[in-house]
Specification:
The protein has 173 residues and is of the alpha/beta class. The protein is 54% helix and 12% strand. A 5-stranded parallel beta sheet has the order 2-3-1-4-5. Helix 1 crosses helix 7 and helix 2 crosses helix 3. It is globular. Pathway: Metabolic intermediate biosynthesis; chorismate biosynthesis; chorismate from D-erythrose 4-phosphate and phosphoenolpyruvate: step 5/7. It catalyses: shikimate + ATP = 3-phosphoshikimate + ADP + H(+). Monomer.
């Protein structure tokens, strides 16, 4: 495998978990874009949002995405949940690799995954449980046209991380 494999989807969809397993399985390095940004900026994503705002963050995010995509090394990259929706991110992703995967999950599953870690997620930390469901539905609706620009859409509901990895590997061989 000499290509980049790019995972995208909503927060809580398992991009980092799947990415690590997939990278290990293919003996490739793994890079989580959010972690890459945190290392480069020397701050947590929530701190960047709080101190510099979302517009600054999104500009940096696209710049760091370009940096990862222009690396000559094959790797597995997990994008942030919002990454595909800003700037020309999906154009960049589609041009950089034939292997971009949208990890698709229903709102109810995302809610169950996100509620326990809500405080660590800047976009939803301030929401009540009732407002969160409406927010997720609205966000998913808005982001759907970007997510579905991925080369592959993988419905992940009911699948284990290992099964999802196998589905991705079946597409790249």
């Amino acid at each position: 495998m000499d290509e980049k494999i790019i995972l995208l989807g909503y927060m809580g969809s398992g991009k980092s978990t799947i990415g690590k397993l997939l990278a290990h399985s293919l003996a490739l390095p793994f890079e989580d874009l959010d972690d890459f940004i945190t290392r480069k900026e020397g701050k947590e994503i929530s701190e960047i949002f709080a101190q510099k705002g979302e517009i600054y963050f999104r500009k940096q995010e696209v710049a760091y995405l370009k940096e990862l995509l222009s690396s000559p090394s094959p790797m597995v990259i997990a994008l942030g949940g919002g990454t595909p929706c800003y700037g020309k991110a999906m154009e960049l992703v589609r041009a950089a690799s034939p292997y971009s995967f949208y990890l698709q999950l229903p709102t109810a599953v995302l809610m169950a995954r996100l509620l326990p870690e809500k405080e660590q997620r800047p976009l939803i930390a301030h929401l009540s449980q009732e407002d969160m469901e409406e927010f997720l539905n609205k966000h998913l609706f808005e982001r759907f046209p970007f997510y579905t620009q991925a080369h592959f859409t993988l419905p992940c509901h009911g699948l284990s991380p290992e099964q999802i990895v196998e589905k991705i590997k079946a597409q790249i061989k």
